[in-house]
Backbone:
């Protein structure tokens, strides 16, 4: 399925809100993707501020919330995109499958490039997980009611907890949550094999197969949130926001409580992590919805909306371009060669900064600002690339 370019002017957003589209959702998606680009592209990977790194294992940092926020947003978007299409049958299901396959293949290409070695290529990844979550959440949304979706979320979270904490790991003999000996790691290296998992982890994958099950629950929490905010819910907007905010607080608290015996862990995508991130995402969207869609606050919103409406495009290209730049080498005065990416960082960004962490952050911010310029131009020219 080829990406399609559609046109939509900024001035049409108000009518889209009235028809069910949320400007706050595009804004929230844009903030999330901008943060994703920021943490994925530091100037120097050896010097990063702690909040911009993932937690080593158990626990969480702000960076650990970015990916589940995006999957939550995928769920909310499904509600608005597929509402009213449940009767379309095989036609809409075919479109869902084609879009999922496109997302998966884009992610696979990023892993494949530039070595193109099929024997060692990583199979899973961020876009691949987005593809699977989108596929299963879309089908669940089309075939179930909101009540049934709540049951599925509970079943996935409790079931995953039971699997990870009670099922003995083959070859180990007992259930555990250690990096290389847990059930999800065993599943990854058994199905994917060590040659095709995340290379730094060697024998497991942080976007692996078994941990995709609770990730689907993250998307379903987004679907339930989208259903609550949709036009089908005729409650007053103030009541919608109040209940969404209260629900976010409760779910976040449940995640913190569950953390006591099933630790919050992004790599394992534990059930407590799903609740923590899902609850905080609900709070974030509730605030955005109240200020932007209800109270018509617009100052500083549209630049992030520009990020949000071309989210997959910027994520894919922001991953591809650094890889291309690493293939282009520059010869230094001493005869050694460095990549063009490192050359630009050392020459134009790092010198003014005494602290290497500040320089690294400046490199990341520069990359984000360049994308802000590109995406703002695209938005003003009504260029929106849909995958």
Residues:
């Amino acid at each position: 399925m080829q990406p399609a370019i559609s046109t939509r002017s900024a001035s049409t957003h108000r009518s889209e809100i009235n028809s069910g589209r949320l400007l706050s959702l595009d804004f929230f998606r844009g903030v999330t993707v901008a943060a994703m680009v920021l943490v994925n592209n530091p100037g120097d990977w050896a010097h990063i501020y702690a909040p911009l790194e993932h937690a080593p294992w158990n626990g969480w940092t702000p960076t650990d919330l970015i990916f589940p926020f995006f999957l939550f947003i995928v769920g909310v978007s499904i509600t608005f995109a597929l509402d009213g299409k449940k009767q379309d049958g095989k036609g809409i299901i075919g479109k869902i499958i084609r879009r999922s396959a496109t997302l998966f293949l884009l992610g696979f290409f990023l892993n494949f490039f530039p070595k193109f070695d099929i024997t060692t290529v990583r199979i899973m990844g961020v876009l691949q997980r987005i593809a699977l979550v989108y596929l299963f959440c879309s089908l669940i949304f089309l075939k179930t009611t909101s009540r049934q979706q709540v049951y599925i979320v509970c079943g996935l979270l409790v079931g995953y907890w039971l699997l990870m904490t009670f099922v003995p790991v083959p070859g180990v003999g007992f259930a555990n949550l250690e990096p290389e000996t847990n059930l999800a790691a065993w599943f990854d290296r058994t199905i994917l094999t060590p040659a095709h998992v995340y290379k730094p982890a060697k024998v497991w994958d942080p976007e692996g197969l078994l941990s995709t099950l609770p990730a689907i629950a993250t998307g379903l929490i987004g679907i339930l949130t989208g259903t609550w905010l949709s036009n089908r819910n005729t409650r007053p907007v103030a009541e919608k926001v109040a209940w969404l905010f209260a629900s976010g607080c409760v779910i976040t608290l449940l995640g913190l409580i569950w953390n006591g015996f099933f630790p919050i862990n992004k790599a394992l995508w534990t059930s407590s992590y799903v609740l923590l991130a899902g609850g905080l995402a609900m709070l974030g969207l509730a605030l955005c919805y109240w200020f932007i869609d209800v109270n018509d606050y617009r100052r500083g919103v549209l630049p992030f909306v520009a990020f949000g409406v071309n989210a997959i495009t910027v994520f894919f290209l922001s991953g591809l371009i650094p890889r291309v730049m690493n293939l282009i080498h520059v010869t230094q005065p001493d005869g050694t060669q460095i990549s063009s990416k490192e050359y630009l960082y050392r020459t134009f960004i790092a010198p003014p900064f005494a602290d290497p962490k500040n320089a690294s952050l400046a490199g990341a911010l520069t990359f984000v600002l360049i994308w802000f310029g590109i995406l703002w131009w695209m938005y003003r020219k009504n260029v929106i690339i849909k995958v």
About this structure: The two ends are 8 Å apart (CA to CA). Residues 356-380 form the longest helix (25 residues).
